[in-house]
Amino acid sequence: MSDKTFPVSKEFADQAHINHAKYEEMYARSINDPDAFWAEQANEYVTWFKPWKKTVDWSFAQADLHINWFTEAKLNVSYNCIDRHLEKRGDQTAIIWEGDSPEDTRLISYRELHKEVCQLANVLKERGVKKGDRVSLYMPMIPEATFAMLACTRIGAVHSIVFGGFSPEALSSRIQDSDCSVVITADQSMRGGKRVPLKANADVALKTCPSVHTCIVVKRGGDPIEWTEGRDVWYHDEVAKASVDCEPEQMDSEDPLFILYTSGSTGTPKGVLHTTGGYLVQAAMSHKTVFDYKDGDVYWCTADVGWVTGHTYIVYGPLTNGATTVMFEGIPSYPDMSRFWQIIDKHQVNIFYTAPTAIRSLMAAGNEPVEKTSRASLRVLGTVGEPINPEAWDWYHNVIGGGRCPIVDTWWQTETGGHMMTPLPGVNDLKPGSAMQPFFGVSPVLLDDEGNVIEGNPAAGNLAIDRPWPGAIRGVYGDPKRFYETYFAMFPGYYFTGDGARRDEDGHYWITGRVDDVLNISGHRLGTAEIEAALGLHPKVAEAAVVGYPHDLTGQGIYAYVTPMNGEVGTDELKAELIATVRKEIGPIAKVNIIQWSPGLPKTRSGKIMRRILRKIATNEIDSMGDTSTLAEPSVVDDLVAHRENT
Ligand code: WTA
Asked: Acetyl-coenzyme A synthetase N-terminal domain spans which residues (predicted)?
């Protein structure tokens, strides 16, 4: 926490869409009269083919759990992102694509976007894809990824994007869970001058996915690949043959739009389901108000489309608003540590949205790579994904933004679809590290562990939301029971976020991190259960327990306690094998930092592993370990403490 504040400048507030008084007025209306408020926003941001009957119809109760926004209304997402802009901005650049190599740039106008999307939509139709069918995307950050998302929405297919850094195993389980019939991928992806063999990975995955009859392959890297006749087709061949006309499907507001897998406390990753109308309203409205986006701005979000930030804030929000959105294929350190800032100058980026982990790693490279660029075009900066530490905030503000750009620290989740708590750039005197206040329509509460609402300020507790917002998760794909149990069972009547938060004396919110068994590694969510399951696949592992610990660069690191089989002694060789097993099962983002050989794990008498104790050992807070008397074998703790690894 930092007690410095950075006052909003009068100049910025005067030109902003929303200033302090307007926020107060709009927020009050969004809570006191949500029907009228959201009806107004829905008409302002989205074009509907048919109006709705009810703005919102909902219940968080177990027997009747449902969230419906803009009931019975009809719309189409690709129509909103493309067609309706054609008359006024057909020649305007919709996507600025910046390749891995600085020589590779492509500008795509709204008119070209329309053609590309219609053609690909027709290819999907020819391959038998119908409204409601699921299509899996396993793609590099190339324009075709956006075309594919929009082509799905055009015909009412439901996309499920799997981040290109995930392993074949992870891809396969996601394809199977959502029963996809088509996969769209590329031969290789290019990142930092290196190639990732996406198609080869997909080939491995598809061995266990009998539901997939078509694999559409974009040529990107150009290296040779294996080919399965009948199943595999080249993207460019098929698109070249397809018609450029494709009527957008009339979708119901509550028809599924996409599935995106994310990690939770228990079990395998779950398919978070988002639907059409409410999601799009929230995406567009938050993109415009949170970033103070104005017509003509160049906007850049550095996320990957494999994550929710890429869905909402590279594609759906900006394109619904007719913006120019930058899509970057590469990484911040290639060809050198100056790349982000060079791209900002090259394309005159006005709004820049990235993750604290990227800021920290660039900060570690010093100011020189930054100072050789101008960045004078920047007006608003944003962060997302994890709490930002005050040093990184200061550096972002002073060195990157030259002290003149407000920073919006946006707290939200895959499940929330769009921003939930964030400063607005024309509204707040900023407090580094604070997500400040709820977005419109969001009604947060802090609950104690018994589920009682904690009133007054300051306060701290479990962060929950007491009513639905338009972009809210509508289900866990194929598993209604898990939907209720994951989000609504812990505190009946509330959506539970899994995060803890503090409210300061002024009523501003500070997210303190996950209170469940979800880790946040470089802004990527990983469940401890998934990592433990991967470790358990190794034949020499009897048992494993995983916790997080604070890590300077990645926010959190992975600390694994592993019990080898048959009381054997662990070796460095086995450590390396285990690290490789987890990487293979989940993907390179799941990098185990520390393995401690553990002859036993602390368990309750009923056999439940007490992670609270393991967390304390990992973070070297032995003195505040709390009561260990309920353990089946208290002595295992002494052994773990004696052999803890330095973090
Ligand atoms: C964390 C990413 C602090 C939080 C959009 C949340 C944050 C999880 C912030 C969701 C922030 C996200 N400050 N923590 N500004 N933004 N988080 O689903 O723990 O990948 O629950 O969505 O990231 O991660 P997810």
From this structure: 23-81
37-288, CATH topology level = Rossmann fold (3.40.50)
Main-chain phi, psi angles of 584, to 5 degrees? -70, -40
Residue 484 makes CB contacts below 8 A (sequence gap 6+) with: 62, 65
CA atoms within 13 A on the CB side of 366: 4
499 lines ligand 1 (CB under 6 A): yes
Distance CA 279, CA 410 (A): 17
| Ligand 1 probe mutation, 360, 412, 512, most atoms within 8 A of CB | 412
Ligand 1 atom at minimum distance from 309 CA: 5
Please write the tens of the pLDDT for every residue from 359-408: 999 999 999 999 999 999 999 999 999 999 999 999 999 999 999 999 99
Alpha helices in 352-467 (DSSP H): 356-363, 368-371, 390-395
Say how many Å lie between the CA of residue 384 and the centre of ligand 1.
Answer: 7
Q: How far is the CA of 237 from the centre of ligand 1 (A)?
A: 40
Q: Does 467 show up as a binding residue in the annotation?
A: no
Ligand 1, atom nearest to 383 Cα: 15
- Domain ranges (residues) in the chain: 37-288, 522-643
In angstroms, rounded to a whole number, what is the distance separating the alpha carbons of residues 275 and 293?
24
The reply to whether ligand 1 has any atom less than 6 angstroms from the CB of 514 is yes
- Ligand 1 center from residue 513 Cα (angstroms): 8
At 1, the pLDDT band (50, 70, 90 cuts) reads very low
The residue whose CA has the least distance to atom 5 of ligand 1 is: 413
Nearest CA to ligand 1 atom 12: 385
CATH topology of domain 522-643: GMP Synthetase; Chain A, domain 3 (3.30.300)
What's the half-sphere exposure (Cβ side, CA atoms, 13 Å) at 327?
A: 28
pLDDT for 314-333, tens place per residue?
A: 999 999 999 999 999 999 99
ipTM value, please give it: 0.99
Chain segment 150-175, per-residue pLDDT in tens: 999 999 999 999 999 999 999 999 99
pLDDT digits (tens, 9 = 90+) for 540-558: 999 999 999 999 999 999 9
How far CA 225 is from CA of 145, 196, 222, in Å, comes to 20, 12, 9
Reported as a single tens digit per residue, the pLDDT across 268-293 is 899 999 999 999 999 999 999 999 99
Tell me: is residue 482 an annotated ligand-binding position. Answer: no
262 lines ligand 1 (CB under 6 A): yes
* pLDDT digits 0-9 by tens, 477-530: 999 999 999 999 999 999 999 999 999 999 999 999 999 999 999 989 999 999
Determine the distance separating the centroid of ligand 1 and the alpha carbon of 359, expressed in angstroms.
Answer: 16
Q: In this predicted structure, what is the pLDDT of residue 3?
A: 66
Ligand 1 touching residue 510 (CB < 6 A)? no
pLDDT at 105 over 70: yes
Give the number of other Cβ atoms within 10 Å of residue 621's Cβ. Answer: 11
> Cβ(308) to ligand 1 under 6 A?
yes
The pLDDT value given to residue 381: 98
- In degrees and rounded to multiples of 5, residue 639 shows phi and psi of -65, -45
Q: What are the strands, taking DSSP E only, across 439-591?
A: 444-447, 459-465, 475-476, 495-503, 509-514, 518-521, 524-527, 541-551, 555-564
Report the nearest atom of ligand 1 relative to the CA of 413: 22
